[in-house]
């Protein structure tokens, strides 16, 4: 019965994975190739003849200028008033439309108007205008423009890390709302010459479109926007050094902003727009799963900071990671639940103890750093910690962990030991010697150095950080007792090899996963470190001949 349930779960996991991949492929095709007909996957209805077409209004040999203004005004309906109250901060002349994917960058030092400094106002905006070269007409029907806020009233984020020996030197109050300035503006423009039928225009880009009539057909102005995924919490900096802002305290006189404009494909714009609206839903009170600002920023970074090809590989890697992780846990539970304690001789108890301690300290550390950790990584760590604790109950007894728990009656009994149990006891004894004589003194020195020279939010944060580094250092030894037992016995029959195969695949997927998904640095190092252990284990699996399970 248990075997059937296990097979059903495996099939269900593979089916869910296949459905997820099919959905992702279909979504990518819809976003990047909206006018392409693909039977069964992305079918399109037949287009009637003489259908009105939408074409881009800018055609060769069109040339355009780029101008960026900073203004306290929210619109430019009155061109004269706008130009009088605005400041030109960036200008690029005469670019040819044939260059579909241009790249422009600049580091600007923008002066904050006197009025905003005195009133502590957040009313400051950046306007980007892209129009026909040699003209300055904000009412031009061929003008492409976008607006982005440069200032905002936000809660001050105070870094509470400090030297525990010297005390807290931070005097700023947290939870105070003060004016912040944006340090990053990422403009994007779509210069691809895409054609759409009048009734097949993608609805998600309609709010960004401006269309004009041109004969029988219609022309649309190139899409221009500030990518909302580019700006994260770290790109908003306080414009005052005061904890509380009043009318008597002036803001900083200027702000440094990194500005960029790049040409992109329509698919990338639609993908970013799709992700942005999805993240907004996760922030809403009606969302089933509430994501914090740090989780939202992590997802923004994962999407925006990589190219579309790398993003597709990452999404596939995440799906494979979840599939193999689920199958590994399933095989692990199936293996350990079907074995008696006598059938588990040859399993290193020291490795089991270090595995449980490592899993739970890792979970506590990531919870302490939950603002820097992706929720998927945190959930996986929680499941792993629970499974490791359950596995330990199948192998360990109280006297294995705490010698005082051994009763006199049990101490006087001499149980005959087989080859596996004897080798296991010898290897565990050697491991304990190395841990107590070599590793622990080194970790004590590291703890002292960390306390004196590094910064932490609290003593609990310092304790978790040191504990995790200690565990990760010992984890490099954790699997070696089991590998040594395998070598001495010349077999790996006592291990759940199917689960290890899934974990072997997951480990190499994690290498890519760790480079993209935000997580603490120590977790990244720990992921890359596991490769060596799994390579040695796979070598043993291939080298040692399989033999039937024997009773010790």
Q: In oligomeric terms, what are we looking at?
A: single chain
Which residues sit in consecutive blocks of at least 5 with pLDDT less than 50?
Answer: 242-248, 403-416, 547-552
Biggest β-sheet: count, sense, barrel? 4 strands, mixed
> Would you list the SSEs in sequence order as H and E?
HEEHEEHEEEEEEEEEEEHHHHHHHHHHH
End-to-end Cα distance: 28 Å
Give the overall average pLDDT: 77
Structure write-up:
The protein has 552 residues and is α+β, with helices and mostly antiparallel strands. It is built from 14 helices and 15 strands. Strands 10-1-12-11 form a four-stranded mixed β-sheet, with no helix packed on it. It has a four-stranded antiparallel β-sheet with strand order 3-2-5-6, with helices on one face. A hairpin with a 2-residue loop joins strand 11 and strand 12. Helix 12 runs parallel beside helix 14. The protein is globular and about 90 Å long.
Chain-wise SSE layout:
Layout lengths: L1 H31 L20 E4 L6 E9 L7 H7 L1 E10 L6 E9 L2 H6 L5 E8 L11 E6 L1 E5 L21 E6 L1 E6 L6 E2 L13 E4 L2 E4 L3 E3 L9 E3 L15 E10 L2 H18 L9 H12 L3 H30 L11 H20 L6 H21 L2 H4 L6 H5 L6 H35 L5 H31 L7 H20 L4 H23 L9
Parallel strand pairs: 1-12, 9-15
Antiparallel strand pairs: 1-10, 2-3, 2-5, 4-15, 5-6, 7-8, 8-14, 9-13, 11-12
Helix pairs in contact: 1-6, 4-5, 6-8, 6-13, 7-8, 7-12, 11-12, 12-14, 13-14
Which key phrases capture this entry?
552 residues; 4-stranded mixed beta sheet; disordered C terminus; alpha+beta; globular; 4-stranded antiparallel beta sheet; 14 helices
């Amino acid at each position: 019965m248990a075997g059937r349930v296990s097979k059903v779960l495996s099939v269900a996991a593979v089916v869910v994975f296949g459905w997820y991949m099919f959905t992702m492929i279909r979504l990518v095709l819809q976003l990047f190739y909206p006018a392409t007909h693909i039977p069964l996957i992305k079918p399109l209805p037949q287009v009637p003849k003489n259908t009105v077409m939408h074409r881009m209004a800018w055609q060769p040999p069109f040339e355009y200028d780029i101008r960026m203004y900073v203004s306290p005004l929210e619109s430019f309906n009155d061109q004269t008033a706008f130009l009088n109250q605005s400041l030109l901060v960036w200008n690029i002349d005469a670019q040819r439309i044939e260059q579909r994917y241009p790249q422009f960058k600049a580091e600007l030092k923008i002066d904050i108007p006197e009025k905003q400094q005195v009133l502590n106002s957040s009313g400051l905006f950046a306007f980007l205008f892209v129009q026909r070269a040699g003209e300055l007409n904000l009412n031009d029907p061929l003008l492409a423009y976008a607006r982005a806020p440069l200032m905002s009233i936000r809660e001050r984020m105070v870094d509470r890390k400090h030297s525990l020996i010297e005390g807290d030197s931070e005097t700023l109050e947290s939870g105070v709302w003060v004016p912040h300035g944006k340090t990053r503006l990422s403009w994007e423009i779509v210069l691809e010459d895409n054609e759409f039928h009048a009734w097949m225009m993608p609805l998600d880009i309609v709010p960004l479109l401006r269309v004009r009539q041109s004969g029988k057909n219609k022309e649309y102005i190139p899409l221009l926007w500030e990518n909302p995924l580019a700006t994260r919490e770290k790109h908003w900096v306080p414009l005052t050094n005061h904890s509380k802002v009043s009318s008597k305290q002036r803001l900083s006189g200027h702000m440094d902003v990194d500005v960029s404009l790049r040409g992109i494909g329509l698919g990338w714009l639609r993908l970013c727009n799709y992700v942005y609206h999805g993240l907004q839903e996760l922030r809403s009170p009606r969302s089933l799963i509430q994501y914090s600002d740090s989780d939202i920023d992590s997802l923004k970074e994962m999407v925006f900071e990589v190219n579309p090809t790398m993003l597709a590989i990452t999404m596939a890697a995440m799906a494979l990671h979840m599939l193999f992780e689920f199958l590994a846990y399933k095989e692990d539970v199936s293996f350990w639940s079907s074995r008696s304690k006598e059938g588990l001789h040859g399993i290193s108890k020291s490795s089991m103890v270090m595995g449980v301690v490592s899993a739970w300290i890792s979970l506590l550390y990531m919870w302490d750093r939950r603002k820097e950790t992706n929720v998927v990584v945190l959930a996986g760590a929680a499941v792993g910690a629970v499974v490791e604790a359950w596995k330990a109950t199948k192998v360990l007894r109280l006297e294995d962990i705490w010698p005082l728990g051994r009763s006199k009656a049990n101490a006087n009994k001499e149980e005959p030991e087989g080859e596996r149990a004897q080798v296991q006891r010898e290897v565990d004894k050697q491991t304990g010697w190395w841990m107590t004589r070599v590793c622990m003194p080194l970790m004590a020195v590291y703890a002292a150095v960390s306390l004196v020279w590094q910064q932490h939010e609290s003593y609990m944060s310092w304790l978790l950080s040191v504990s995790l580094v200690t565990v990760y250092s010992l984890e490099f030894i954790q699997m070696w007792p089991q590998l040594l037992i395998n070598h001495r016995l010349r077999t790996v029959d006592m291990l759940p090899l199917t689960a290890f195969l899934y974990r072997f695949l997951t480990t190499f997927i994690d290498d890519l996963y760790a480079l993209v998904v935000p997580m603490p640095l120590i977790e990244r190092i720990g992921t890359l470190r596991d490769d060596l252990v799994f390579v040695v284990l796979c070598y043993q699996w291939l080298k040692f001949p399989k033999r039937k399970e024997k009773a010790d």
